[in-house]
Amino acid sequence: MSEEKPFCKRITPGFLKKNLEEYKEWVREPLYVCGKCGRVARRSRDLCKPLPLERAAEPSESDE
What we know:
three-stranded antiparallel beta sheet, single chain, alpha+beta, globular
């Protein structure tokens, strides 16, 4: 798999069937979302148009 291409461009039909474990690593604990296709990744360089995700705040007492 070529590391030069952004993650967004590497996902092709049949990719998940052949590379599920690799895909799981890319999306585990995401920090960025692609503003173009909506995919998520831990590293900004893996996406075409990376936008930082805001970490979810700790649940407040009213959420419990």
